[in-house]
UniProtKB/TrEMBL annotation:
Top-level division of the source organism's lineage: Bacteria
Keyword Endoplasmic reticulum in record: no
DNA-binding region: 43-62
Gene3D superfamilies: Tetracycline Repressor, domain 2
UniProt keywords, alphabetically: DNA-binding, Transcription, Transcription regulation
Protein name: TetR/AcrR family transcriptional regulator
Annotated organism of origin: Nocardia uniformis
InterPro entries: Homeodomain-like_sf, HTH-type_TetR-like_transc_reg, HTH_TetR, Tet_transcr_reg_TetR-rel_C_sf
Keyword Acyltransferase carried by entry: no
Stretches assigned to the HTH tetR-type domain: 22-80
UniProt-listed PROSITE patterns: HTH_TETR_2
GO-annotated molecular function: DNA-binding transcription factor activity; transcription cis-regulatory region binding
Amino acid sequence: MRRGVATAASTEQSGQKRADARRNIAAILDAAQECLIADPEANISHIAKHAGVGRVTLYGHFPSRADLIDAVFTRAVTESDRILDAVDIDGDPREALARLVTASWKIIDQFRALLLAAQNHIPEERIRAAHDRPMRRVRRLIENGRATGVFRDDQPVPWMVAVYHSVVHGAATEITAGRLTDQNAATLITGTLLAAYSPQPAP
């Protein structure tokens, strides 16, 4: 009987520890996102204090600042992808592109500082890998445009997807540098992409 009681108590304690760990991780990720959006160079001590945990606890879940930024960035991309699922990319590909750019830009503008932190601490290939799922949506839109003759078909689709990624994130970099304003960013991005995607006149 005592052994059974001890086992039950141990199981309960183990479950409580896991629940505490999940709460700590969520608090750390929330705090890191808020801190990094406010300041891309926010340090671990500031993030831990904002999360209400100690540095040892934070490092117990995220061994380095880069690991923490990677986790925050990946979570933000996953949430962004969920939001973009609601964007209609059917119909006229040009109008669909404008809708997707507008919705994407609202998200990127919100997380612009977080993207900067990621670019400073995460390898470029890791950032691109995090965008794989969202970019599938762009790929489908481009393929629809090519199939209907609205978009050019003389360039590889992966290249056209890469152009989308580069132009959108390039706009975020330009705004951070003060060379572009966010008020007209979506219009400029859409215009640039339409110019790049439009069929070229025959020579």
